[in-house]
Amino acid sequence: MSSKTWTAVDDYIVSSLFEADPVLDAVIKTNRDQGLPAIDVSAAQGKLLSLLVRIRGAKKVLEVGTLGGYSTIWMARGLPADGKVVTLELDPHHAKVARSNFERAGVSDRVDLRVGPALQSLAALAGENAGPFDLIFIDADKPNNPNYLTWAMKLSRSGTVIVCDNVIRDGAVLNKDGRDANVEGARAAFSFIGGDKRLDGTAIQTVGAKGYDGFAIAIVD
Known about the structure:
The chain is α/β, with parallel strands linked by helices. 45% of the residues lie in helices and 20% in strands. Keywords: Methyltransferase, S-adenosyl-L-methionine, Transferase.
C-alpha cells in the first residue's frame, strides 16, 4: 500500500469520527506560516493522546518537545478543568508560536510552557518536586530518548503512562548496525523500556498522513 492510501485513510478517519475543528486547522497553518518543521503528530494521533489522557484520568501531564503546541492542545483538551500540561521546548521561536496557539485554543490556563534545554528543565522540575506525572509524552530529539526516559521514571509513579513517539522510523529500527542517530535513539527507547523491570510496555506501528512510524507505550508498575 502507498503513502497516498495511508493519507486517504487518515482523512477518512478524521471525517468520520471528528467534528470540524477550525482552531486546530488554524494551529497547523500558523505553524507552517511561521516556518516550523511539519513534524506535528497527525490529527488521529493527537486524538489518541487526548483519549489516553482521559482513559488514564490524568491531571498532570508532562510533554518533552512542544514544537508549535499542536499535540499539547490535544492533551490539554483531555484534562479536567484543574489539570495541567507541563511542556518543554528548546527553541524560543517555537515557544512563542506555541503560546499564541494556546491562546487561540483557549487552553493557556492548563499549559505550563518552559523554554530551554529539556534535560535542564527536567532537572528543574525534579528540584521543584513537580512530579509525579500521570502521563508523559516524549517527542523531542531522538538521541536523548534514554535520558528523557530516565527522567520520566524519576518524575513518575506506579500507574504513570509513558508514550515515546517516532520509534519505528519507516522500519529502520530493525537496522542494528546503522549509524543514524535518530534510529539509534529509537532502538535505545526499546532497550530502556524492555530492560527496566518497573515498566510494562509495547509498541504500536502506525501508518497515515505522517508516513510509517509508531509509538512505544509503557506503564510504570
